[in-house]
Specification:
Blueprint lengths: L8 E4 L5 H12 L3 E6 L2 H14 L5 E5 L5 H10 L5 E4 L14 H29 L2 E8 L10 H20 L5 E8 L5 H11 L5 H12 L11 H11 L11 E4 L10
Parallel strand pairs: 1-2, 1-4, 2-3, 4-5, 5-6, 6-7
Helix pairs in contact: 1-8, 3-4, 4-5, 6-7
């Protein structure tokens, strides 16, 4: 399938590493003017330098802003007044016994994992509907459907994104704008490597640690391995294109078959 995003501007929150970085690279390879985002000037500059080396013809920009805050979101809009493809990727996760999670931590997860995307969609959707074309995606997780015992607060925040996405899709019905959620399964990132080590021990070779993690903590996986970030990015690039014009209000799974259901 030939996906050409030339002439489109894409913004990916939290895109200096992990899944977000892979998504930014995928959109840039497809021809979109792609805006990389992180909280620090250094992380953004380092990522831009690396991506420009990997994709010499890419049209890349960078904005350092903490979009988990209202001030950061407004600062972003000041530098990027309009986008055609908005990917709300920013998120945090950590294993924590549910009874040890206090009110402040619950609020932090809601601010970062939910409200960051809510704010950005609210800022950029009006322009998309005026132009009659746009793509908004929320990066959720299998944890939105299968709540993990070791991080309930994370799972709850991702479940909320399913309702947010569906609600925004209804709000822009018939405008040429689509809104979807991508349910990413257990994915191989630096943060997940640390997470796996925390759960199964840091004294194991990586391949053995990964096998134990999947067997003990994610046994429903049909891949029987962690997903690579580029595999998530492939779906996001497709949903950002004209080819996905009839997909909206959906929760699209890239979970390696982890969710044991025919529908999400």
């Amino acid at each position: 399938m030939d996906i050409d995003l030339s002439g489109r501007t894409a913004f990916v929150s939290g895109s200096t590493k992990g899944i977000g970085r892979a998504i930014a690279a995928g959109l840039a390879r497809a021809g979109a003017t792609t805006v990389v985002n992180g909280r620090s000037d250094k992380s953004v500059a380092d990522t831009l330098r690396a991506l420009r080396s990997e994709i010499p013809d890419a049209d890349l920009r960078g904005v350092a802003a903490d979009v988990a805050t209202a001030e950061g979101a407004e600062a972003l809009r000041g530098q990027v007044p309009a986008v055609d493809i908005l990917v709300n990727n920013l998120g945090i996760f950590e294993a924590r016994p549910v009874l040890d999670i206090d009110d402040d931590e619950w609020r932090r997860y809601f601010e970062v994992n939910v409200l960051s995307g809510v704010r950005l969609a609210r800022l950029y959707l009006p322009g998309m509907t005026e132009r009659g074309w746009g793509r908004v995606q929320f990066i959720a997780s299998d944890s939105a459907v299968v709540t993990p015992e070791e991080m309930v607060h994370y799972g709850v925040s991702k479940t909320a994104l399913l309702a947010v996405s569906r609600g925004y899709a209804k709000a822009v019905a018939g405008t040429g704008v689509t809104v979807n959620t991508v349910l990413a399964g257990p994915t191989h990132t630096g943060g997940v490597e640390d997470f796996v080590a925390e759960l199964v021990g840091d004294d194991l070779p990586w391949e053995e640690a990964q096998r134990r993690f999947i067997a003990e903590y994610r046994p429903n996986s049909l891949l029987r391995r962690l997903i690579e970030p580029e595999e998530i990015a492939n779906m996001v690039v497709y949903l950002g294109s004209a080819h996905a014009s009839a997909t909206t209000g959906a929760a699209v799974r890239v979970d390696g078959g982890y969710v044991d259901a025919i529908l999400p």
